[in-house]
Amino acid sequence: MKKWKCKVCQYIHEGELPPDICPVCGASSEAFELLTEEIQVSEDEKQATQQILFNCTYGLYIITSFSGEKINGMTSNSFVQMTDTPLQGAVGINKNHLTSEYILDSGVFAVNFLGNNNHNEVKRFGYNSGRNIDKFKGIDYTTSEKLNLPVLTNTIGYVECEVQRDKCIDLGTHTLYIVSIVGGKNINKIEPMTYAYYRATK
By its UniProt entry, which PROSITE patterns does this protein fall under (predicted)? Predict the structure, then answer.
């Protein structure tokens, strides 16, 4: 049975359609909104679902950005190209990550594409916080050609991204950044690393 809530007085009506008139405040049917019930998931179901999700085919990337003269980066498996005309992409990043703060400040970031030889980079940028260490210390990197972003030199290559602030989506713990891909460069010919490959060989 569907549930409808009056947006004026919060009255709840059960039925396939909202009432013509709210019996409490007299508002019309247009004042009612359909309520959706949250599906409850047990801890066992959540863990089983997570095991299935490990079979998703993800790439692995280092997302790099800056804030003023400070630079940082983080490992990610969530970058995707969304459209090719124009070139647009998306990536979900935890709001608590320092890299997310830098992206919010600068409005730009680079996506470094990792190859099967980049295990150390996954660990360096994924298992440490830039609040505690300089992740780029001892790392070979340069700056990107258009946006002057820090990019690693021993990866497959990178793309440069400008955040479309009006299109980003708040996902609670994460922000889904929608971006314009404004540049990029191939650096090395390496087989791309997948998340599954990394988990099997780390």
Answer: RUBREDOXIN_LIKE (PS50903)
**Type and span of the H or E element at 185:** strand 174-186
Tens of pLDDT, residues 75-123: 999 999 999 999 999 999 999 999 999 999 999 999 999 999 999 999 9
Cα 59 to the center of its chain, rounded Å: 13
Tell me, what amino acid is at 94?
N
Pick the CATH number of 58-201 from 2.30.110.10, 2.160.20.10, 3.90.1300.10, 3.20.20.450: 2.30.110.10
pTM: 0.78
